[in-house]
Amino acid sequence: MPHRRCRALIARLSLSLAVIAAPAAATTLEYVGTYVWRGNERSFGGFSGIEISPDGHEFHALSDRAWLYWGSLHRDPEGRIREVGVAGRAQLKDSKGTPLKPGYLGDSEGLAVAADGTIWVTFEGLDRLASFDNPDAAATLHARPPELPGMRLNAGLEALAIDAEGDLYSLPEKSAREDQPFPVLRYTDDTWSRYGTIRRDPRWLAVGADFGPDGYLYLLERDFHGLLGFSSRVRRMRLTPDGPQDEEILLTTQPLQYDNLEGLAVWQDGLGIRLTLISDDNFLIVQRTELVEYRLRD
Question: Taking the model in full, what pTM does it have?
Fold first, then answer.
């Protein structure tokens, strides 16, 4: 073969191999901002769940003492939160209309708001699922979730998410052991069922979840470092009965970078997918309620 043709063939082959080996476009996560939310009411604080409207301007926030806050998020031209306007707050009620007290019956943790406005809440302590037609309504009780390995007092169904079809998914804060995966429960047609598992990495605990507009499940996890505070991690994955697919870790924070992030909401801001996280201050003066936001670009 003439040298010229040989060199041309080698060049074309090299180019083809370079195209095949070229990596896919990277996923980038951009920090948007942090807003410290303050309130003077005794009920303010301890937020363990948050839901954001599709346009990013309305919110519901759930405390672990059975209080629900709702209102508006005022943003600057760059989309950063500049003020939280509280439109109302309500103490959640039991099925008889009696306000729930903090503790065993009132340890509300997971929050999901359906397209029709129904408010869904999971509780620790007495592990259960309840729905509310509005924040002031009496609870509608539903089938009790099955007892899972690792579930115990203060380690029940912490994360709750609702998909586009209206099915609910929940998982406990802990699995049976650090080397065993988190079991995932699905609730549909008033029936609970096991829906696969999600890998657990030692020390990381599941504290929040939400389905994004891309159909992925986003999972918020937390690690506690004693005097060094908390670190947080966000994973996303396609949830299937055969296990997660296309899983990736989007965010891992350093100890003391943020407070005790426990709630996660995922929405579309027009430039990318926005992650809004809220911290649980445990009603302690040394902690704070933070709204932390990132934007995901694929």
Answer: 0.90
